[in-house]
Amino acid sequence: MTTYLETDPSAVSTGVPGRRERFRRPLRPRWLLATFAVAALVVLPVALVASSILTPDAEVWSFLWRTSLLEMVGSTLLLLAGVVIGTLVLGTGLAWLVATYRFPGRGAFSWLLMLPLAVPAYVLGFIYVWLLDTPGPVQSGLRGLFGSDVWFPEVRSMATAIVVLSLALYPYVYLFARAAFAEQAVATHEAARTLGQGPLRVAWRVLLPMARPSLAAGSALVAMETLTDYATVQYFNVETVSVGIYRVWNGMYDRAAATELASLVLVFAVTIIVVERALRGRARYHQQGGSARSVEPVRLTGLRAWTATAACAAVLGVAFVLPAAQLVNWSSLVTLRRSDGGLDSRYLEYATNSLLIAAAAALICLVLAAVVVNARRLGGDRLTAGLARVTTVGYAVPGPVVAVGVLLMFAGLDRALDAAGLDWGRFLVTGSVAGLLYAYVVRFLAVSYNSLDASLEKVTPSMTASALTLGAAPWRVVSRVHLPMVRTGIGVALVLVAVDALKELPIVLLLRPFGFETLAVWVYRLASESRWELAGLPALTIVAVATIPVAVLVRRSMKEVTAW
Amino acid sequence: MSATQPVLRAERLVKRYGDVAAVDGVTVDVAPGELLALVGPSGCGKSTLLRLVAGLTPPDAGRVMIAGREMAGPSTWVPAERRGVGMVFQDHALFPHLDVSGNVAFGLAKRDPGRHERVSEVLDLVGLGEMGGRYPHELSGGEVQRVALARALAPAPAVVLFDEPFSDLDRNLRIRLRDDVVAVLRAAGAAGVFVTHDQEEALAVGDRVGVLRSGRIEQIAAPQTVFHAPANRFVATFMGEADFLPGQRVGTSVKTQWGEVPVVGDLGDGHDVDVTVRPDDVHVVPDPAGDARVRRVEFRGSFVVYHVDLGDGVTVRSMASHVEPVGPGERVSVRLEPGHALAAFPADAA
Fold it and tell me: Which residues of A402-414 are buried (b: 16+ CB within 10 A; e: fewer)?
């Protein structure tokens, strides 16, 4: 009859096979190598900045110390604290209102309140400077009413910067908080109510502690954005470390000082991540069981209902409606005022620049993300998975740090090319958009990666395995099975990166080749020169484009809302 | 089998995840055209073993040979796409963006002039000749599995691997489909390795059945052997309902309180042994003077199973057609009537 075949004692007696027999090789060496290359590409500029922490330049630091280092660090900390508290109050408060109460307009507000995401802080900022500063309509109006010596708080100040950034960034906290409140199983909430706790106490003792990890994540995003910003805060004469980088680089081309300051920003960023992890603790974002039914909202009546409506309307008004309306107003003024009725020719040129650079960044990110995502799927080993995660770290690194890192890399490259007798290195460094694109890839690769990765979940591991066992080479599995099935993910990845790149300001300000203007840079320059009307149209364009991903977000959350 | 070269050979395969050896030194051969069923509780490593053979996971040690060629070894590694094995998955894994023909043609070379013919040939083989233009979401559960099988068979692999292919289907469909799959595989002349956690399925499908536990093969033999002459207590209880009755070994039989029965193998004389009995080996008759008592009567449709207390904490199950009127609490006498040799194990090695 048949043979035997059982466990072979020699192989199992020790549990460990002979050393020589043991082999661990990567399943897909070439894909692993490609992933490694992408990871190195992303990490290198950040690592260059980080390494300057380890080798501080005493001379530079004493120079910085003598100038304004302490003030810069102080205002950075103050700004971070203020904006985080401001967004927590606004975001959590609004999310709590729409999640636990029923009042007129609640359904619409629940998604309308995300719209301010489409208004970059540097746009919102200049609109408020225009509105509130001495020559602006508010103070003029007050002077007309009460005479010329009417008191008004200083507009170009830390306090206004905090308020404006909070209005621009609160949707991050709002999104996370709302999702957390919606996810909390109704049972937990009702159990607390039946234990004799009123709604406010439930909010304080159950809803908020359970939402803590989400609030921490939202606040961390806010803190990162605040840290990255240096356009908005400059309108308000706030000198953060990021502003310092821009000053020493653009004003003095002092690469050493810029590097040291960038490493300081990196320390801030790492601290934010560490604090977020600590706050998140071992808690999960999602409650187990994933009950579809969420907390039953309490119906508000009379004055209280209208107060809730008014609160939502007020925030939406100042953070989105008013600025958007003013941008439309300016845009039409510009068109009307010109005799030929045409557009400023610079508008088209800069818009084209923006579009091209955004499209190029989106495409490069897509290709690299596709390589990494597929390598992880095809290889499946821990090394590839770890390297894939590394390729996404750029999103957690503030823009100025990435920019300075890329500058350092290109400077090194330039020296190397000079040494090799090639003189086009200088052009590469200062005269081309290569550095800009590189920095965009470092910063936004995570966005492409995440959309593709989420989309690839539709392709089950056994589909990949089936395709392979049917004899399809990896590239064919990718082109015939993976890519056709993740088409929507590809689209989303392209759009999200393109929009991010179009809105982006700190990186492009540091890395743009001489004379290269984008819409964002133009808006910033016009706003700095108080030429508000001219800034209207490009700013409106940016807001309109930035509405696309917000609309996607809204549509996705509409499903949640209908479940409410 | 000794004369023919095995179409598939796994040698001392080891795969560890952390400290856990999912596959712990497994050696197994599959002859051309043979169907091997691998069965074991969940987590026993049977699916991992399949992935090692398919080349979807690299082993930590050991060797995989397919059609005489080394596919994985100390210095060899051939990835899945160059191994020429077919694989059918539990979730069928059809490509949703391709129609049935597209799915089946996927493994065939684009320039192959016989491509269309081959597609309709294998579709006919699985009885879906008219379904080429349908998309996976337009198929029933059984049709989906047939397409998955057709797709795996299209490139004419020497061996097809099945990873719990029917566990998503309901029982009736599962049995029908299983018989069809075996017939199709035989018609195609391909060998098959069939992983399942369903003992009945393993016994019904396999020319041989391999029982796995904790990454090791406990026994591998013909279905009858595995069932009637299990290599150890684990195999005995895992492959079917088994009770162990104490007795003394006498030559080739065991003397028990309930009769003397022939046993397989040879343990030597005078040993205290436990003899493995299955419900169909035990006969129960109503007997007011009997020293056994029916504890429970379990109705199973076409027969009943009596759970009988034999005293001293020993219980046994007995299968009977339910015309016999014995109720719970009644006294009975128990007789062993196996009609074949039973397996026995030393009493102290529990």
Answer: bbbbbbbbbeeeb
Chain B environment of A462 (Cβ under 8 Å):
89-91, 93, 163
Q: Computed from CA positions of residues B220, B221, B226, B229, in that sequence, does the dihedral angle turn out positive or negative?
A: negative
Q: Are residues B24 and A1, on separate chains, in Cβ contact within 8 Å?
A: no
Parts of chain A with a pLDDT under 50: 1-23, 285-292, 339, 341, 561-564
Contacts of B38 in chain A (CB under 8 A): none
CA distance A368 to A370: 5
Residues A215-246 pLDDT 10s: 888 899 899 999 988 889 999 989 999 888 88
Of the partner residues A11, A27, A471, the one whose CB lies closest to the CB of residue B25: A11
Number of C-alpha atoms within 13 angstroms, CB side, residue A370? 22
Residue B175 has what pLDDT? 86
What distance in Å separates the CA atoms of residue A344 and residue B2, rounded to the nearest whole number?
88
Give residue A325's pLDDT: 93
Does position B38 have pLDDT exceeding 60, yes or no? yes
Q: How many residues does chain A have?
A: 564
b or e along A450-485 (b: 16 or more beta carbons within 10 Å of the residue's beta carbon)?
bbbbebbeebeebbbbbbbbbbbebebbbebbbbeb
Write down the ipTM of this complex: 0.84
Residue with tokens 């989105």: A320
Angle of helix A434-456 relative to helix A399-419, nearest 10 degrees, comes to 120
- Judged by CB atoms closer than 8 Å, whether chains meet at B217 and A18 is answered as no
pLDDT tens string B232-272: 899 999 998 999 999 888 888 888 888 889 888 766 666 78
Q: How confident is the model at residue B172, as a pLDDT?
A: 82
3-class DSSP assignment, residue B262: strand
Amino acid of residue A183:
E
Rounded distance between C-alpha atoms, residue A473 and residue A123, angstroms: 49
Q: How far apart are CA A364 and CA A382, in angstroms?
A: 25
Give the integer Cα–Cα distance in Å for A273 and A285. 16
Q: Do A3 and B82 touch (CB under 8 A)?
A: no
Helix (H) or strand (E) segment spanning residue A553: helix A532-563
Q: Distance between CA B103 and CA B150 in Å, rounded?
A: 9
Contact assessment for residue B60 and residue B16, using Cβ atoms and an 8 Å cutoff: yes
- CA pair distance A170, A166, nearest whole angstrom: 5
Instruction: Quote the crossing angle between the two packed helices A532-563 and A158-183, to the nearest 10°.
Output: 20
CA dist., res. B269 & res. B250, Å (int):
6
Measured distance CA(A52)–CA(A407) in Å, rounded: 14
Say if pTM beats, i.e. exceeds, 0.90: no
Which residues, 6 or more positions from A308, have their beta carbon under 8 angstroms from its beta carbon?
Answer: A97, A101, A103, A106, A300
| DSSP reduced 3-state for B196 | strand
- Taking CB atoms and an 8 Å cutoff, what residues of chain B touch A25? 58, 77
Residue B127 region by backbone torsions, left for phi larger than 0, else alpha for psi between -120 and 50, else beta = left
pLDDT of residue A476: 93
What is the per-residue pLDDT across B70-118, written as a single tens digit (0 to 9) for each? 999 988 889 899 999 999 998 889 999 999 999 999 999 888 888 999 9
